[in-house]
Write a structure and sequence with these properties.
This protein has 5 helices and 4 strands. By secondary structure, the protein is an alpha+beta fold. The chain has one domain. A 4-stranded mixed sheet has the order 1-2-4-3. It comes from Desulforamulus hydrothermalis Lam5 = DSM 18033.
């Protein structure tokens, strides 16, 4: 085992099921800088993990990733080993994202970051989140071969879906609608 300042711990050879992969961190940092709705997300407190074997299937639905809280006991153990504190983990199911494009992986990280609430808790999936992802990226944004916008690209015209100033992927349209 060797150490490298750009990573947490570098293991020369590892064939385990769970692999720490800090390559997602720059994506998350760039998304937090770019999108107002992610400003509260503490990227430094997220441990990024590749699940190399699991499918993440739940009730016959494929999971591409999930975010959760690191239990306090494991926060302390990880700190003793690495000298770093992690409050959250983002688990990426590698088998399920193999065919995803760069843009889809960026959108996936964006989607998972949205689960971290302003109070530090975790928000579950809800209809608003789903409709916002569909509105901004299309119905099948995570499907293989689907072309979606690169959320980190410079030349994207965001004028129809953001306010002036900082990038914001979705409008704040939390209004009550009566449907008959």
């Amino acid at each position: 085992m060797s150490s490298d300042n750009s990573r947490i711990v570098v293991v020369d050879e590892w064939n385990g099921k769970y692999v720490i992969n800090d390559a997602y961190r720059p994506i998350a940092e760039a998304l937090v800088c770019k999108f107002e709705e992610l400003k509260h997300v503490p990227v430094k407190a997220i441990l990024f993990i590749d699940n190399t074997e699991g499918t993440g299937k739940s009730m016959n639905k494929i999971k591409y990733a999930q975010i959760g809280k690191v239990p306090e006991k494991w926060q302390e153990i990880i700190y003793q080993v690495t000298g770093r504190t992690f409050q959250y983990f983002m688990e990426i199911f590698k088998r399920n994202i193999r065919e995803m494009s760069r843009e889809q992986i960026i959108a996936l990280v964006y989607h998972e970051l949205r689960h971290i609430d302003y109070d530090g808790g975790l928000k579950h999936h809800d209809i608003e989140d789903w409709s916002e992802m569909v509105y901004g990226l299309g119905l099948n944004w995570s499907s293989t071969k689907t072309v979606i916008p690169d959320l980190l690209a410079e030349g994207i015209d965001w004028s129809n879906i953001n306010e002036m100033g900082q990038q914001k992927l979705f409008k704040d349209n939390r209004t009550l609608r009566v449907i008959k």
